[in-house]
Amino acid sequence: MAAKQSEMRSNSNHYRNHPQINKGLKFVIFPTNTKILWWDFLMILVVFYYAFSIPYHFGIGGGYAVITNMRFFIFQLCLDGLFIIDSILVFFRAYRDVDGRIIFYHRSIARNYIKSGWFFINFLASIPTLLISYIQYPNQEYLLEGLHSNGVRFFFFLGFFKMFRFIGMKRRIRHLLDTSEFASGLWVKVNITTAKMMEFVVLILLLTHWLGCIWGFIAFVEVGSWDEESMLSTPNWMGNWQKITTIPGGLYALGWENHTGRYWLCMFWASQTITSIGYGDISPVTTAEYAVANFLMLCAGIFWAYVIGSLVEIVANANKLNRDCITRMDDASQMVCDFAAQKLPEKMTGSTAGVKASKRGSLHKNSLDEKNALTLSEAYPTLDILSPELRKLCALHLTHTYLETIPYLSSKYLSADEQAEIALQCRTLEFAAGEHFSSHPEFRRGLLIFKNGFAFTSRNLTKTNLNWTRDQGGHAADANEVLVEDEYYKEKQIAYHFISFSKVLFVPRSAIMNALGKNPGLKYVIFPEEKKAQVWDFLMILVIIFYAFYIPFHAGISSGYFTFTNKGFFGFVVSMNAVFFIDTFMVFFRAYRDDDGVLIFSLRTIRRRYIRSGWFFVNLLASFPTTSILYAKYRQNDMTVTGDTLFILEMFKLLRLVRINVRIKKLLNTSETVAKMYEHVNLGISLTVKFVFLIVLVSHWIGCIWGFVAYVEVGHTWDKEAVISTPNWIGNWYVPGPGLNPIGYSNFMDRYWLCLFWAIQTITSIGYGNIAPLTATEFAVANGLMLCAGIFWAYVIGSLVDVVAVSSKLQNEYVTRMDEANQLVKNFQDSKLPKSVTGSTTGVKASKRVRRFLTNQKEHSTKNWMDDGNSLTISEEFPTLNLLSPELRRECALHLTHAYLETVPYLSSKYLSPDDQAEIALQCRTLEFAAGEHFSSHPEFGRGILIFKQGFGVSARNLIKKASTWTRSLKGYALDVNEVLVEEDYYKEKQFVYHFVNFTKVLFVPRSAIMNILEKNPVAWKKCARWRYFRAALVLESLKDADALMEVV
């Protein structure tokens, strides 16, 4: 975009300075002109204004508000003047043709403007219709009567041409985004999902407004006037409604001066119609009204279906990251659950963090990337789409600051192209807390430039003399040793020990960071990983949720009656307020992560950021002892004081809800208990619980707001006489009798259930219509609540569709695979084969065994069920491993297989190092067998060791002899440990064959992996494996001798 703007500016300057180009060029307005950009922004606002005002004046007000208010009349004339100026300016505005060329020749601009037809539309739109009507009827009363004449109506009709400008508004908005640096900067910062949601909210408001004005215009056409007598005497829906619901003090929609009340009534019908609530209290009367109502309801239904569909798509797109995270967290949870050893000895892991691998694995997510070491092109796929020049520019934007910290890679010695070339070879690495790093297993040595996180450094992994290395974003030092040869450097190389999640830029063959001093105030800092901080965060989440329900209830339903009359509950509320007060000042000592993920623990920085953010003042007001002061007033006056101005301070507590998501995420990332619960709870259920809670909370809020409206209408009291005598929806609804009684301070629970009943009706679009607004204020609030409820319900539907899709993924995959299995069975040429052909010992049909196998896979969750193969490496079985750093991948592999490998003597930690065991672990495969199968060697990977995970079977030396050995399912029981070492030719004649008698899962260690490790590790071979080999050879030789003896006999 910046390149496009600079190109346009340079072109315009070139054309202006060229002596032989069009002499009238100085009058041309180019698209990049700053003044014209502000003019476009102003015209967008004007068009939006007319999109709302013209339907209102035509269908609701009849021009009364404009005619009777001179200031408003002058304001309208000024806007008409802006339209006239804009229509003329188009003759001087350069534009881009279809091929993207800037056309700045006056004659071409004028010809294009006139041929397009927009000149005539703009000309009609800029006619000052209001001024002409006012001149024709100078007296206000005559003007109102003149609105019935065809001439005035014609001039009013010309005002609709202003709304045609709404069509071209999208083009102006795109032009602003393309050329205005300010607008494009805002667009980049705003989340796309948020922008889409705002667009739909504006669209819903606009369509609701239009439908309401059309519905009002129908009544105006039926009667021909807004005069009260004419409206009541002529059949029309508005007069009919007013006759039925006329209550002193209620909403009155008849008469020229009551245009506001008429507007809220029409909007109420439109909101009901669009959101499909349909209380049924506003209905058409005449044939024309029924016809128009049918058309409007169809349009509203189609529009609402479009809104729901669009919101489902928006929610799906917004939740794409969440869905991928859910899938990956499921993979990680499955991997953690399958850890053969939940805790390994420190000598096996080399970890210095004291944090479980399950927790470290869940912390260590590289967004949606499929591996940990990413080049810039892999981290930002957009780079591959760009032109070479733009790719270099973006690469420099990403890394130039970091490269400048390295003297010999700075722009002082390297050109921009050379820096960009290095930048495209840099890789982003991520490390979990407790990992250490000296060189990358694939890319070897290199320079680490910290993006976030911090670490200790030492000269090797055994000495404990550690230096503190703070993160200073992008700071690189000690860039010399990386240049030294490997042979000279390796003995005393620097090792990094990461004590928090860290992200670094890895530059192959570059420099290494220097150690920085400790922060002297560190002992007063509260770090996120501290258990006390985690417990406090959990307590604050509960307190905030309590206030999210309590404050609306206190304000709109009980008016503080229950709090002030119950000393126990009053004491509880005061203690909650004290917790808020303590938390307000604890923030001054709490370390936090900035936008780049850097842990900030400088007390000065923490305090400065807390005060500048404004949250300190919000929290201070929220912790003000409002309840105690109001309680003292209540004890003196013996009356509730919810209407007191001081109660507004309580609302500041609700602002803490904005930050509750941050605390929850922090708990998930730092608390071991919460993380463990999160790992073991199905994520589909978690999301469903979340949305149920959200529905309950929003229903509670809407119900309390609806109750608060009646409370304000009555005069801030729930006194019985005041509620019944003052116009309000509760007094209108209430009928004396044995039923629900919402009137009176002590009946606050009855009042709450009534308000909640209306809220749930409104949200779920049921709308029985037995609770209806009465006054203009109630109608206005009801319109807003219905629209909010409709949008919220559409959002909930879209989100729940997404949750159901995620939750049903496993079941749908199972059904698909069973359908494929049925198709397979249907195409069997022989439904039953002889036992001599199948080798099966179960007597069960193959079709039944296939279905049972698939069902067992799903029910036992024996692997990542949706994988496409049966023989999987642990990286394929647990895709999370591919996302982790090499160090953490090695540790997780050991967690998964260490207990199994220890059952094989020559593969145990007694002879092999953790790296050797991890190397074997990553080559192991998980095999699954159905009942009745037999196995001797893998068709692709040959012979190997089988280590049982579940199931059992029998083993025999061949398929002919009946002598078999029972093999029970002992978790970690290893088979064929000795004979797997014997050569293929010598072993094959008397090899073991395994017959599985139920669904069985085993860890398969290929012979090739075993022999490779033993070749690298001569100690394991000499001290253990060769004696195992000798024993197996003796057993096989004795079997040969026994067969020979049998033949002689």
UniProtKB/TrEMBL annotation:
Keywords: Ion channel, Ion transport, Membrane, Transmembrane, Transmembrane helix, Transport. One of its GO terms (biological process) is regulation of membrane potential. GO terms for cellular component: plasma membrane. GO terms for molecular function: voltage-gated potassium channel activity. Pfam families: Ion_trans. The chain crosses the membrane at residues 36-52, 72-95, 116-135, 147-164, 200-221, 295-316, 538-557, 569-592, 613-632, 691-712, 752-772, 784-808. Residues 38-320, 534-802 form the Ion transport domain. It comes from the Eukaryota. This is Voltage-gated potassium channel. It comes from Skeletonema marinoi.
